[in-house]
Amino acid sequence: MNHQEEYPADYLASILAEVKTIAMVGASPDATKFSYGVLRVLHEQGYNMIPVNPREAGNEIRGLKVIGSLADIEEPVDMVQVFRASEALPGIAQEAVAIGAKVLWSQIGVYSDEAALIAEDAGLRVVMNRCPKIELFRPFWKPKLGQVI
Question: What are the backbone angles phi and psi of residue 112, rounded to the nearest 5°?
Fold first, then answer.
C-alpha cells in the first residue's frame, strides 16, 4: 500500500470499528499537548487506552496507568498509535510486531516507509500521517438527502 496516498474510507473505518485496545506511544500528561486531546477523545469514545511513556511510567494520565514500554503491557493490544518522531517509528514498528498488535497507526507528521514495511511484512495494517481522532469523526457514509430529522 502506498501510504502517501489517501486511504480508502472503508479501510480506515474498518480499523476504527474493529480495534478495542490502543497503546498510545508518546502519550503526554500535559493537557495542552495534542496527544493528550487525542487520548481523551478516543477514551471517551470507548476505546481501552494504554498510555505509553517511559518518563511517566507508573503515573496516570486521565486516570489511566502509564506503561513504560510496549513490552511492559500485560494485555493484548489491537493498535499501536505513535506520537513520536518519524525516526523512532521503525523501532516502534518492531515492538508492535513483537507484542502481536494488529495495526500500526502513526500520527500526523509521523511517517516512515521502513516502519510500514516492517509492520506490513508481519501482517499488520498500517496507517501513516493520520489522526484517528479526526478519522473517527470523518463521515464514512454519504448523507441520505431528504431524510426527515
Answer: -155, 115
| pLDDT tens, residue by residue, 115-143 | 999 999 999 999 999 999 988 887 654 45
Q: Provide the residue type at 117 as one letter.
A: L
Q: Residue 119's domain spans which residues?
A: 9-137
Residue 4 lies in a domain: no
Domain-located, residue 148: no
Note the pTM of the prediction, 2 decimals: 0.91
DSSP, residue by residue, 61-114: ETTEEPBS-GGG--S--SEEEE-S-GGGHHHHHHHHHHTT-SEEEE-TT---HH
In a domain, 3, yes or no: no
In a domain, 2, yes or no: no
First to last CA, the chain: 39
**106: Cβ–Cβ under 8 A, 6 or more apart, which residues?**
81, 82, 86, 89, 112, 115, 127, 128, 129, 130
What CATH number does the domain containing 22 carry? Answer: 3.40.50.720
Q: How many domains does the chain contain in total?
A: 1
